[in-house]
Amino acid sequence: MRAHLQMAGLALAALAVAWGGPSGAAEVTKSAEVQRTGMLTVANTLDYAPFEYLDADGKQTGIIIELAGEVAKLVGAKLDVARTPFPSMIPGLAAGRFKVAWETFSATPERLKQVDFVMFLKAGLAVSTSPDKKASFSGDTPLCGKRIGVSAGSASDFLVDKLSTECTGKGQAAIEKSVFNSSTDIVQAVLSDRVDARMDDATASSYFEVTSKGQLVVLPTLYEVAPLGMAIAKDDKETADMMVGALSELFKNGTYKAVLDKYGMGAYAIKEPYFVGSMEALRAD
């Protein structure tokens, strides 16, 4: 994942300078809050590699952290990452505690009742397990009867419930779901045989397959391939416009692609960022 170490170092060094400084790139219209405070505040778990995590020195890093730093640069603001548990993000937006929850959300009708989205990535859901258990996941219903770990409130959380119902409807054993608050906890549960496998975004699953050095393998089936995005408070047009505008600039100037490629996630890029206020606005790619 970190094959391009020189590029990584340069990118991080650039971000250290960029955050908080004005940019010479195309001007992006700031929201009233950013104009008033000089801060771009985003809610984030800081515990979902490769999107966001703390490195060995305790420094915030990852795809989302780097992209957020570049957005802050474009709007001439300092980046403030408000560490927030994933299940608390949409309620926090709805309550007005923050304006942006930058994670890899999938849009659902229920979520869209409370928030809007700005899409910036695509991925499906994948299952990963230990090499010795891979052969046991076979047939048309490979998850039936298995112990599956998921992140609380994630798309995987809801999908496992749906798949479990399908299992019992076919006369097979239900899926035994275990819910965790962090992706690293689920990985440890797989490695310690407390669950048989974990379901997560294919992007994160691919990352953990590499970094686990052979302790995890990703199964070939992808579920529910769809765009992913950050969540914005419902009907907050100026914040949504600011984020779409800033990301559009990063797409155009090559920063977006460079950050994704750095983490081995170039295959999950989309053509352009876009706003989603209803399910009808979702695009196929």
UniProtKB/TrEMBL annotation:
Q: Which Gene3D superfamilies match?
A: Periplasmic binding protein-like II
Q: Per the database record, which ranges form the Solute-binding protein family 3/N-terminal domain?
A: 39-267
Whether Endoplasmic reticulum counts among this entry's keywords is: no
Ordered alphabetically, the record's keywords are: Signal
Q: What is this protein called?
A: ABC transporter substrate-binding protein
Q: Does the keyword Repressor apply?
A: no
Transmembrane annotation, as ranges: none
Residues of the signal peptide: 1-25
**UniProt cross-references to SUPFAM superfamilies, sorted A to Z:** Periplasmic binding protein-like II
